[in-house]
Specification:
With 146 residues, the protein is an alpha+beta fold. 23% of the residues lie in helices and 16% in strands. The protein contains 4 helices and 5 strands, in the order βαβααββαβ. The chain has helices at residues 43-48, 62-67, 70-77, 123-135, and strands spanning 34-37, 53-56, 83-88, 117-121, 142-145. The strands form 2 sheets. Strands 4-3-5 form a 3-stranded antiparallel sheet, with helices on one face. α1 (43-48) links the parallel β1 (34-37) and β2. Mean pLDDT is 77; it is low at 1-7.
C-alpha cells in the first residue's frame, strides 16, 4: 500500500506524486495539435472542449503575422525593461512545460520537476539568442518570449 498524503486544503488524501498516473493523455506527448478550419461547423463545439486546437483561416491575427517580425518588435520593444523568457534545454527538443510554482496553485504539495527555466532579459538579448539558435546547425536551447 502506498503512503497517503493529506491535502492541506482539506481535500481527499493523495498518494505521493511519483506514484500518481500522469494527468494527460500519453498520445499528446510529441504529437500534433488538431487543426480545424474556421468555417468548419464543429469549430465552436471543439473550442468549448478546452483542448489544444489550432483554428486555421480565421484571419484573427492576419495583421500581426504580416507585421510582427524581429525588426518590428525591436522598434517597439527595445526600450522595455525586461521580459520573461522561457529557456528549454536542447535535450527537451524545443518543448516548453508550463507550470505555476505558487503554493496556492499546488495546495497538495505535489513535486514539480522543472524542465525549463524562466529568465529575465531585454528584447535585444532575446532576439540575439533566438537568431543564434535558428542559425545553428545543431539543435540547441530554445527560447519563448512571454
Amino acid at each position: 500500500s502506498l503512503p497517503q498524503r493529506v491535502c492541506p486544503a482539506g481535500g481527499v488524501p493523495k498518494p505521493p506524486a511519483k506514484a500518481m498516473r500522469p494527468r494527460y493523455d500519453p498520445s499528446l506527448v510529441g504529437g500534433q495539435v488538431q487543426r480545424i478550419d474556421a468555417n468548419d461547423p464543429e469549430v465552436m463545439t471543439l473550442l468549448r472542449c478546452q483542448v489544444p486546437l489550432v483554428v486555421t483561416n480565421s484571419n484573427l491575427v492576419k495583421k500581426a503575422t504580416d507585421n510582427w517580425d524581429f525588426a518590428y518588435l525591436e522598434r517597439h520593444l527595445a526600450d522595455v525593461d525586461n521580459f520573461f523568457v522561457l529557456c528549454a534545454p536542447a535535450q527537451h527538443k524545443g518543448r516548453f512545460a508550463y507550470y505555476d510554482l505558487a503554493s496556492k496553485k499546488n495546495p497538495c504539495g505535489y513535486e514539480v520537476i522543472q524542465t525549463n527555466k524562466r529568465v529575465e532579459m531585454r528584447f535585444p538579448e532575446f532576439k540575439k539568442k533566438a537568431e543564434d539558435a535558428r542559425r545553428s546547425d545543431k539543435r540547441g536551447d530554445a527560447y519563448y518570449l512571454k
